[in-house]
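User: Hey, my collaborator sent me this sequence without any context and asked if I could get a structure. I don't really work with proteins. Can you help?
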Amino acid sequence: MAPRRSDPGGKHAIFLERRGYRRRRLADAARVVPVLGGVLILMPLFWSDADGERVSTVSAFLYVFCVWALMIAAAAVMSWLLSRPDED
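Assistant: No problem. I've predicted the 3D structure and written it out in structure-token form, which is a compact way to encode the shape of the chain:
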């Protein structure tokens, strides 16, 4: 095992390559999309009008369809970005 180098303060400086750091954050975002989408799809259950009545079914289905389409688009973009080869 190689000895660890430390700075005079006793702390270790860790520098990550910018490209690798962004790729990891993008992978983290890709893991969050299904969770966020699930929460957003459940939101119509909590909607109500100013009178306390439920929102129409058509509005709820249109909302769910839009969230579903946005999740597909976000997953496609993130998949494309993650599948690109690293340029050296």
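In plain terms: The chain has a mean pLDDT of 81. You can pass these tokens on to your collaborator as they are.
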